[in-house]
Amino acid sequence: METSALLKAFCSAVERRDGRSFANLFTEDGVYHDVFYGAFRGREKIAELIDDWFYRTAHEFRWDMHRPVSDGRLLYAYYTFSYVSKLPEAEGRRVGFEGVSMMSLRDGKIAEYREVANVGPAFVDLGFSPERTSKILAKEGAHLKKQPEWKRHAG
């Protein structure tokens, strides 16, 4: 699938709450690493991420990919992402953030999806307490330090 068509199908499936179409963009053994919810392996779990996890606490998603770069094996794109919160402390409030999608591609499908996201503005918009924000960011930091790319940077 051509890059812009893949990204359009990716974002559109999330916005339509179409987990099956979203998961079909991935290889059978594909993995989606979500910045909030962790890793979802295989098409069934990836579809569940969209249909259940995403829509459990939010609705009216908007996801746009900008300035994609790909060599056919890797695809990077800057994104803007927002949704309307269902969380009690931010019910009905549109919140959003920016990030970078990093996809490994195999045979025209996504084999692995990872992202780096600037979630701080969303946490403020959601009204998260400093303690809750700190806990989430500490979890992200612990995950980062487990990555092989981080080994040289470890104390």
Report the C-alpha radius of gyration, rounded. 16 Å
> Which parts are unreliable, with pLDDT below 50 for 5 consecutive residues or more?
none
The major beta sheet can be summarized as: 6 strands, mixed
What proportion of the residues is helical, as a percent range?
A: 25-40%
Global structural class: alpha+beta
**What assembly state would you assign to the polypeptide chains in this entry?**
single chain
Describe this structure as you would to a colleague.
The structure is a single chain. The chain contains five helices and six strands, in the order ααββαββββαα. The protein has 155 residues and is of the alpha+beta class. The radius of gyration is 16 Å and the shape is globular. The model has no long low-confidence stretch (mean pLDDT 94). Strands 2-1-6-5-4-3 form a six-stranded mixed β-sheet. It has helices at 3-16, 19-23, 42-56, 120-126, 130-145, and strands at residues 26-34, 38-41, 58-70, 74-85, 94-106, 109-118. The longest helix has 16 residues, at 130-145.
Main attributes of the structure:
single chain; about 160 residues; alpha+beta; 6-stranded mixed beta sheet; 5 helices; globular
Concise synopsis of the structure shown:
Helix content is 37%, strand content 39%. The protein is an alpha+beta fold and 155 residues long. Strands 2-1-6-5-4-3 form a six-stranded mixed β-sheet.
Secondary structure elements and pairings:
Layout (H helix, E strand, L loop, with lengths): L2 H14 L2 H5 L2 E9 L3 E4 H15 L1 E13 L3 E12 L8 E13 L2 E10 L1 H7 L3 H16 L10
Parallel strand pairs: 1-6
Antiparallel strand pairs: 1-2, 3-4, 4-5, 5-6
